[in-house]
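Worked example

This section walks through a single chain of length 247. The input is the sequence exactly as stored; nothing has been trimmed or padded.
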Amino acid sequence: MSKKITEKRKINFIANSYLVIGVFLVALGTIIIILARYPQVWYAMEINTVENEFATLTSPIEEDIREYRELLRDRGDELEEIDLEEEEEEEEIEDKHEEDKVELEKHTLPKLDFSLPAGNHVYIKKIGVEGRIYEGENPDEVLEKGIWRVNDFGTPEDKNLMILSSHRFGHFSWTQEQRENQSFFHLPSTRVGDKIEIVWNQRKYIYEIYKAQEGERITDYDADLILYTCKLYNSPIRIFRYAQRIN
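Given that input, the structure is written out below as tokens.
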């Protein structure tokens, strides 16, 4: 009789243990799903998160700018824009050297298309990004709005590298729609060969990703476009995507 009671207690103990473990795993899974879907919950629990993410997105860029300017200086280049009024004349130039011809074709502007939206936007169909590009001297204020074009770098209209950055997890004040359209949460899902479209002053520029990296610093300033975001809430590591213009 006592043996049966002992076996019954063991069975009850094992069953209760599995129940506790199951409840714990369900609760943990629910928390993970909620934090992934609604990152603002984490912001509410950890007040330093906003500052940490801003720091990851903005602090290293000053060193990146210095390095880029030194590179341009070594090459004898400057931050110059193409004269839009001379665009048609440039297209008619017949170059004697193939290298000059390739350079000219690369920086010829796409045709104006008044069916395109006014303002500047970036589209990455693979990850659902359809965001307006914001500019300003204060990156913290700009990143609160959405996608930031890093000042001191170029635009699609000139010959210089353009850099776009955005929150990965979104600002706590963002709506769900902003998180889906403006954040770079799914940037790690992009791969070499994926396309990025930028509409700038009603001209469409198409880029193709050729390199994907993670790290604290930019490693390739020969790109036409770089996208980056933070990897984690409290990490200095940034996720980079390097792209070349193809149209």
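What to look for: Confidence is low (pLDDT under 50) at residues 81-97, 100-105.
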